[in-house]
């Protein structure tokens, strides 16, 4: 079976950049199996790109290489990373985009410096094509991740993806509003596991308070708010058959907390 490389970018599909990225991959290893996760990450939005990876990348088989390019610092001092975590390899700029991979206890990160993992001529504005794509292709073809360059022990991790305990509350933030208007938080089902009976918890965001965490949407009436653990194992605020984002005027970055009743 051909090696799998997934692609996540903020390039969109109107310009030639995605095509150039795929061409660069296939020029190095012609028989790669390329699969798009998303090219509609908002421009320069690293947190949105990290969210896409967290929700989609783990559905792929072991040894998949995940190439992600959302790179506001292209041409600057930020490092290029290859990460070995979760049975897969990950290639991206060191800007927090790989927070989901770096969260693994056994994650190993390396700076990509090996001369065989880049084009001879490196554009100042398109490292996706000239650096990240060749590195991802070579990793997919079996290049040892530990040989890409020096070990990195201080890779950037997005604090917005990690909730904190504050007194008797578990506090996180809204990190995504999906197209249905569901407000997805940084608090996971695992974070809540030791917090008590879900039915007795209270979820608070701004002036919105929801009592109890339900399982399916149908446990509340049409038009009523609900707190539940979504398919990505993250706590979300939803409005049955409506948009919680519109109803509550909440947005990404807003505080959300879980309290014991």
Classify the fold: give the CATH topology of the largest domain: Rossmann fold
Structural class: alpha+beta
Overall outline: elongated
Give the name of the CATH superfamily of the largest domain.
Answer: S-adenosyl-l-methionine hydroxide adenosyltransferase, N-terminal
Instruction: Indicate the percent of residues in helices.
Output: 10-25%
Please give the CATH architecture of the largest domain: 3-Layer(aba) Sandwich
Largest sheet: 9 strands, mixed
What is the domain tally?
2
Number of helices: 6
Spans of 5+ residues with little confidence (pLDDT < 50)? none
Q: Percent of residues in beta strands?
A: 25-35%
N-to-C order of helices and strands: EHEHEEEHEHEEEEHEEEEEHE
Query: From the alpha-carbon coordinates, what is the Rg to the nearest angstrom?
Result: 20 Å
CATH class categorisation of the largest domain: Alpha Beta
Extended strand count: 16
């Amino acid at each position: 079976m051909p090696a799998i490389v997934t692609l996540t970018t903020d390039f969109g599909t109107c310009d030639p950049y995605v095509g150039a990225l795929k061409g660069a991959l296939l020029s190095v290893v012609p028989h790669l199996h390329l699969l798009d996760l998303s090219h509609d990450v908002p421009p320069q939005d690293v947190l949105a790109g990290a969210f896409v990876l967290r929700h989609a990348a783990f559905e792929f088989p072991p040894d998949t290489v995940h190439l992600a390019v959302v790179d506001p610092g292209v041409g600057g001092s930020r490092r290029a990373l290859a990460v070995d975590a979760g049975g897969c390899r990950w290639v991206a700029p060191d800007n927090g985009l790989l927070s989901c991979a770096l969260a693994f206890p056994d994650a190993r990160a390396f700076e990509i410096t090996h001369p065989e993992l880049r084009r001879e001529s490196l554009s100042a504005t398109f490292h996706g094509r000239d650096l990240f794509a060749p590195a991802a292709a070579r990793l997919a073809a079996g290049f040892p991740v530990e040989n890409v360059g020096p070990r990195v022990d201080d890779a950037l991790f997005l604090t917005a993806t990690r909730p904190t305990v504050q007194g008797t509350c578990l506090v996180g933030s809204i990190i995504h509003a999906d197209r249905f208007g569901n407000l997805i938080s940084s608090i996971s089902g695992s974070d809540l596991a030791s917090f008590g009976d879900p039915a007795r918890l209270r979820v608070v965001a701004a002036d919105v308070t929801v009592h109890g965490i339900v399982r399916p949407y149908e446990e509340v009436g049409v038009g009523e708010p609900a707190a539940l653990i979504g398919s990505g194992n993250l706590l979300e605020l939803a409005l049955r058959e409506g948009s919680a984002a519109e109803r509550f005027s909440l947005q990404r970055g807003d505080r959300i907390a879980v309290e014991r009743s």
